[in-house]
Amino acid sequence: MKLVIKKFLATIAICVLAVVAYAMWSSVYFKQVTTYGRVGLQSPKMPAVNCWGDSLTAGVMGDGVTYPKTLQQIFSAQLIANGNRTSTPMVRNLGISGETSLEIACRGGLKMHLRSAVLMNRPGHPETFEIATKDGRAVSILRLGDVGVNPVRINGITGRLNRVNNNNLYTFTPTYIKHQDTLAPGSSVTTYAAAHYRSAIPIIFIGQNGGYESDADLIRQQKAIIKNQIGGRHQYLIIGLHTGTAEQRAALEKQMQKTYGKHYINLRAILSKNGLKIAKIKATAQDKQMMEKGMTPASLLAADGLHFNPKGYRTVAKIVYARMDALGMIHYPVGAQSMLKNYY
What we know:
Layout: H1 2-33, E1 48-53, H2 55-58, H3 67-81, E2 91-95, H4 101-108, E3 112-114, E4 118-120, E5 131-133, E6 152-154, E7 157-163, E8 170-174, E9 181-183, E10 188-190, H5 192-196, E11 200-205, H6 215-227, E12 237-239, H7 246-260, E13 264-265, H8 267-279, H9 285-292, H10 310-326
Parallel strand pairs: 1-2, 1-11, 11-12, 12-13
Antiparallel strand pairs: 3-5, 3-10, 4-9, 6-7, 6-10, 7-8
Helix pairs in contact: 3-10, 4-6, 8-10
């Protein structure tokens, strides 16, 4: 009987010690996770950011400054200032100069397929073929660049897609399959980015080079990129065109606002109203004339009047960051907040 009592008391003592040890560990852990810089972000790590676009995303005439690069720098500065030094999200610049909205959408997830059967590993010269979208339009990716395209997957087979000429003809070289085999007409074609960059926040800045038949068509292309994301279809931004006057862009901007709400950045309107304030530039006489018409002021533009200069690209990045912050896309440590003003 005494032995049983001793064992019972020993068991109780062990349980008490375990509870005390757990309480002490919990206290230390809680202190760590609520102190800036020790553990880092309290929310799950922020996903990467995919910047889809043309030369305005690639940063043409920016002297090395691009809005994606500046956005990455802002992320680093903001998060480090708020105590986190390890979890700055990756910002991918997926801009190709000169591409149309359709070409960008094809790279970003718009459904594509083979128009005809293709014999892989054909002796001699590779077999050429065409690619089409679901509605039958010819695909012309790789016309100006390979960002986010290769290696592609055709009907699940990985390989390299090559553009043969300006007639939208392609060849396909499989990576692993060495024997001859035929890919059936209608086989799906998926770019590398569409397959591997899906767990990211897309920022879509397309349309300046055409490629869409109507405002509704442009929206369908934008939505194709958004729809391709995994589990993050409510985390995205659409950047509107910055060119033209308020009157010229009224119909398109109204449709964009109706479709996307606060996920739509009316870049032209913001830049014409607050662009110089954000960039800390004093307006010139020309700027004032342009702003009165609802145009992007010349002081933010390069010599061609289309692309941004370095200050312009930096301003775009600040606007994008502020909107992401307003929509809760940026993960700060507990109690921290953005130090950038949100210019709507």
